[in-house]
Amino acid sequence: RMFKRQMVCRRDIERFNRSFLAIYESLIPPEEEKEKQKQLLTMLEKLVNKEWPEARLFLYGSCANSFGVSKSDVDVCLAIEDGDTRKSEILLRLADILQSDNLQNVQALIRARVPIVKLMDPASGISCDICINNVLAVVNTKLLRDYAQIDVRLRQLAYIVKHWAKSRAVNETYHGTLSSYAYVLMCIHFLQQRRPAILPCLQRMEATYSVTVDGVQCAYFDQVEKLQGWGSRNRETIAELVWGFFYYWAYCHDYANTVASVRMGRTISKREKDWTRRVGNDRHLICIEDPFEVSHDLGRVVDKFSIRVLREEFERAADIMQHDSNPCGTLFQPYVP
Ligand code: ATP
Ligand code: MG
């Protein structure tokens, strides 16, 4: 009976495939936007190099990891040999330089958890955050981009999930819900778990790329062009995967005992990581291991209130996918407090 129910569900869900694909397509940024981002980066690099000839700029985050929707902010990392200069001094100097070059709303936020300079480029309307020497973020951006090249269903799923999370107001780390980065890792984890699997575990394959950043070794198989079609034995479509994703996080994930680990390509036990109890502000109520900074739980922002909000949203989404006659309409209905 279970099998029959699943078959019925499958056939029904296929009807929504087109609508999900249309939403995905509508979220992809147009080429000219990418072009404008590149121009902005080149312009910033020129300004920066006048002051620090050796410094380099790298894009990271959604404008470079292939999970960026149209009109996203641009995240930039300034890589610089800082010697003895404090980060805050560099940021203040950088803010001065940018200010005198007609960029708008230039602000140095030196007390933030990740200190940055914010700015807006009036020519393109693009907003941009610049941080210093956050090279790990540049490397995890590459990991995400590499995963995205293996199977287009990752990009489709992650766009839908991010769009859902923004609509439902559960993409706000300052309110105890999850970052976009965490959601993409949850998608990768989920696709590694499908049977047959849709994504491999790149960090458990022979390393063709290896760097050490801030004492953390980052190594994995990055020749992803050789892996295209790797998951094609699994023929699930985007509608089924959206349903499966929410169903997994609503009803199947063992929140009490396990950690989602993209690094291992499976769940691992909380006990193994000593994430079983609250330590300081880290409550470990939903555990998502950072693929490189393995002591870092991306779920640590989640508290006992927001975990309920999150899980209720997963359940709502799973139930909509199961029963609603127009899931694409209902799923993304803005959350109204
Ligand atoms: P959005 O489209 O919402 O801007 P984004 O991909 O830029 O999405 P963010 O969550 O803003 O996602 O994160 C930007 C980048 O910063 C990520 O791609 C990741 O490289 C890095 N990052 C963000 N949060 C963390 C974190 N908690 N630990 C390590 N790296 C992080
Ligand atoms: Mg961003």
Question: Brief description of this entry?
Answer:
The chain is α+β, with helices and mostly antiparallel strands. 43% of the residues lie in helices and 15% in strands. It is globular, with a radius of gyration of 21 Å.
What would the keywords be for this entry?
single chain; 337 residues; alpha+beta; Poly(a)-polymerase, middle domain; Beta Polymerase, domain 2; 2 domains; 5-stranded mixed β-sheet; 3-stranded mixed β-sheet; 11 helices; binds adenosine-5'-triphosphate; binds magnesium ion
Detail the topology: elements first, then pairings.
Elements: H1 2-14, H2 17-27, H3 31-51, E1 56-60, E2 74-79, H4 87-99, E3 104-109, E4 116-121, E5 126-132, H5 135-150, H6 152-167, H7 180-193, E6 209-213, E7 216-220, H8 238-252, E8 258-261, E9 266-269, H9 270-273, E10 288-289, H10 306-323, H11 327-331
Parallel strand pairs: 2-5, 8-10
Antiparallel strand pairs: 1-2, 3-4, 4-5, 6-7, 8-9
Bound molecules: adenosine-5'-triphosphate and magnesium ion (MG).
Residues 60-62, 65, 67-68, 72-73, 75, 137, 140-141, 179-181, 290, 296, 298 line the site of adenosine-5'-triphosphate.
Main location: cytoplasm
GO biological process, one term: RNA 3'-end processing
Keywords: Cytoplasm, Magnesium, Metal-binding, Transferase
